[in-house]
Fold:
Amino acid sequence: MNQFWESTKAYLKTTNFRKTIKRVGFFFIGSIAFVLLCSGILAIYFDTNKTEIVAQINAKINENIKGTIHIGDIKYKLLTGFPNVTLALSQVELKDSLWAIHKHTLLKAAQIEIRLGLWSLLANEIDIDKIEIKEATLYLFKGENGIVNTDVFRSKPKDDKSKSSTTSTIDEIVLHQVRFVSENQVSNKRFDFDVIFLKSKIEHDNDNWYTELYLKTLAKSMAFNTKRGSFIKDKMVKGILVVDFFNEKNQISVATHDLEIGKDPFVINAHFSLDKNKSPFDIAIKTDILWQDASNLMSENISSRISRFDLKKPIQVKCTIIGDMNATGDPQIVVKTKTNDNELQIPDGLISNCSFDASFTNNYKKGNGCNDVNSTITLRNFSGAYKTIPFSIPIGIITNFEKTTAAGSFKSDFDISRLNGIVNKDFMRFSGGQAKVNLEYEFDIVNLEIQKPMFTGNVSVTNTTINYGPRNVTFQKTDVQLDFTEKALLIKKIKFKDRKNTVFMEGKVDNFLTLYYDNPEKMVVNWAVYCPFLDVKQFLGVVTRSHQNAVKKKNKTDDFSNKLSSVIDKCQVVLNLKADKMVYSKLEATKVKATVLLVNNKLIVKNGWVQSSGGTIAFDGALMPKNNLFFLESNVKIDRVNITQFLTSLNNFGIQSFKPKNIKGYLSASASVKGMLLSGGQLKTNSLAGVAKFDVNKGALVDFEPIKKVGKLAFPFRDVNNIVFSDLSGDFMIDGDLVNVNTLKVSSSVLNLDINGVYSFNRGTNLALTIPLRNPKRDENITDKIEIADRRNKGIVLYLLAVDENGKIKIKWNKNHEK
Structure:
C-alpha cells in the first residue's frame, strides 16, 4: 500500500499530469465561456428582437384565445433553461370577452416563466417547452345565467393546418403558490385549492399524453353541492398523481401513489370526461382510517350526523363518487366499510367487541335522485356488547337523512345479572336467570334521539330475582314474557314471589314505546293479577314506603335508570286483582276482587269485594302521599259479617270499653271515612274521620261487665249475662278520638236503650242514655212494630249521662234530658 501511495505522489509531480490538468481546466473554462457567450448572444438577440418575439408570443396566444390578455413586462432570464430561452412574464391577466358581465378574471399571475425552444425560435416560431406559474389565481366560473369565463380558446377549422411542421407542445408545468378555483353556480359546485407546489413533466404520444404529477395543495373546498358542504375542507393533500389523457375518449384518468389527505394515506382512481356539454366523472377511494378522521373529510350534511359516533380502531373504507361536472344536484356516493373487534362510541354509551359490515348510498332507489331523502345506511352482521349486554343486529337500515327512520332486527341472549352493569344499583338489582330478546324494530330518529318507536317480537326472562330499590321490594323466582305487537305491549307469564305473596300477572300497554319516550304520564298499564295469597299490609307497606331509597342521579351513565324510574313514577297502572285468600292484620278474606289504579303516585281502589267473617265486604278508596304520611279515603259496605270475628280481626277499632267476645251477631254496616296511614301500612291512631251506620242482626251482649254491674242493682230478676238484641243499630260521625253518636238504638231481652252524644276513645265522653225500665219480655209476643214503638217508653224511664271524669266514666242523672 505504501508503495502505491509513493508511486501516485511521484506521478502527480510529473509534467504529463500537469499538462492534463491544464487541458481539463481549459475545457471547463472554455465551456463556461461558450455558455456565457451564447447566453450573451441570446440576450443580445432577445433585446434586439424583443419587439418581434413579444409580437410572436402575443400572436401565439391571441390565435388561440378570444378575450384580452395583459402582460406587464417580459424579461429574458440569463442562463435559465440553457440552451433554450426562458422568458419571465410579470403581472399577467387573462380575461374572456364577457368579463364586463361576470367580473371573474380567468388568470391573474404575478409571474409566468415560459421556456421556448431555441431552434424553433431561430426558425421564427414559438414552441413552449415549459411553463412555470408563481403566485397566481386560476378561476373557472359559470354563473347562474349560464355565462362562463372559460370561453377564451378559439377552435380551429378542421381544414386549418399549421404553417409549422412541428406541433407545439408543453413538456413541463410547474406551479408555485397558485390558487385554483372552479365555481359552477348552475350545479352548485365549488372546488377551491391553494396549490403550494405542483410539478408535472408531460410525455406526449401524438394527441395523447401522460404525466406523473407531484402535488402539494390545501383543499379549501371540494363541494359537489355547496348546499351540502365541502369534502376534505381545509385538508392538506400531497402525493403523486399519475395522469393519462386519451384523446379518442376525451378523458383524463388519474391514479395515485403515496397520496395523503390530511395525515391519512389514500388510494384513488378517477376518470374525468372533458366533453363540453356533458362531463361525467367517477372517483374510487380506498383507505384505512379512524372514524373521526373520516368524518372530518365528509361534507357537512354527512359529518354533522356521524361525528357524534366514534370507533377506536381504524376501519377499512371504500368510496365511489359518480357524477357530472355540468349536472345539477349531488353526485352518487357509495361508501362501504367493515371492522372487527372494535369499540364504538355512541351518544348513549360504549359498544365493545363491535364488528359490522356497513354501506352508505345517497341513491338507494334508482330514479329518485342523489339526495338526503334517498340516502341509506345499511348495517349487516352487527354484533357487540352495550356496556355488559351482548347483542346482534343481523340487518339494520337507516333511511332518509331529512326525516330519518331506522328499521331492522335485534337479538340478544344473556345472563340477567349483566343488567347490573347498566342499571343504577339504587334502582334495581338482578341476580340469576336468563334473558332472551328477539325483536324487529322501526323508529324515527330526530337529533339522534329515538322517536315513535315500533317493536314487534318478544322478550323473555326466566327464574330471576329482582330487588326494586325505591320500595325495597324483592321479587323472587320471577318469570316474564313480553310480546311487542304493532299496537301494544303484551306482558305475559309474569310470576314472582315477594315474601308471603306469590303473584301471577299478565298485562297490556297500548302504544307503549311512543308513550315511553314522549308522554309517560299518558301511559296506562293494564294488569290482570292473581294471588293465591295476599298480605294487604305488606302490599300497602310497599305502596306507602317512603321514597328515601329513590334513585340517586349521578351522571349520564345513569340515564337509562333515571328514564325508566321516571316512566314508572309517571305512568298510570290499572290492576284487576283477584286473590284466593287475603289478610290484613288479623282480618282474613277469601274470593277477593278489586280494581286498583296507580295514578300520579296515588293509589285508587274500585269495586273491591271480599268474603270475610261469614259475610261480604265491598269497598273502594284512595291512598295518596301527604308529607311523610299517606292520606286514606275509603267507602266500605259490610253485609252480615260475624261481628265477633270482624271486631277481633280489626283490633276492635281500638275500643277498650268492651271486647269483641262480649258481642255476638251479624253486622251490616256502611262507612265513609278518611284517615292517615303510617309508612308501612299501619293506621295512624285517632286519625279517622267520617260517617258510619251499622245494624246487628241476631245480636247479643255477653258478659259485659258495665251492664252486669248495673243490672245486679237495677234488674236483679233479668238475665244481664246474655242480653239478646232484637234491634241494635246506630248512626255515627267519627272525628279522630271522638265519635258523635247521632243515634244508637238498643232493643234487647233485658232492656231497651237509646243513646246519643259523644263517645271518646280517650277523654271527653258525654253520652245521653234513655233507659225505659219496662221489662221487654212483656212485649216479646207483640208483632206490630207501631205498637212496640208505643210501648217502648211506657212506665219508668231513666235519663242518664255517661260522663268522663278524670279518665273514668261516671253515670249521672240527666236533669236536662228534655233539652
About this structure: The CA atoms of residues 380 and 395 lie 5 Å apart. The radius of gyration is 51 Å.
